[in-house]
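re: ur question from earlier - yeah i can do the single chain one, its not a big deal. heres the input i used so u can compare w yours
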Amino acid sequence: MTGPGAGEALLAGMDERGDVVDGDHVLWQERWWLETRPPLAWVLMHPSPQEGDWWRRLKPMLKAMAQASLGFGAGGMVVTYLFSKRFRDPLKVWNAEGLTHPQLDEYIRLAARRSPQGVVVAWGSIGRMQKRDRAVLELLFDEGVKLHCIGVNQDGRPFYPTEVQPPLELHAYEWSPQPREVDYWSWRKRKAGDASARNPTEAAEGAERLP
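and the output i got, formated as tokens:
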């Protein structure tokens, strides 16, 4: 789906909370505090396995995300996912089919296009499941958007919000389809205030050392 009316069509089914849900699939969740400013887009791993008030149940994590977004000058945030289907244990569905809605990538593209300051990738190590993290990084790379993260783990994948103690700090996340080395320890040194650490963008470089 392309063209100027694509976004309106994708969001036509949005409920009063700002969620677009199709059965067990959560495709889009937005929250606003100042609608005169554009939102900041986040891509997480998968939606909460429970239906109901997403904001109320995940309030501590989402509050930290909202504060980081606000600090970045955003007027709200839009959340999409690597996997749109609700599930509890990734290990039980590692090779399962049907975890991504046919239109999920269109929602990710839409979120990226509505977030001029870029996209925060924050899905954790499990993002490697079905190599979905690489597929979404390629999509975002093709869109030409700026990528941000809240830190990287030892395999170079971006932390999930609950893996980082608030307040969340946004850093540049450099990724290329070409294999590059991940400098996790430089990022750790920078966090510890080591003056000899390299630039934070280098610490997040090359999420590609992906299996």
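Residues 194-211 have pLDDT under 50 and may be disordered. not sure if urs matches, ping me
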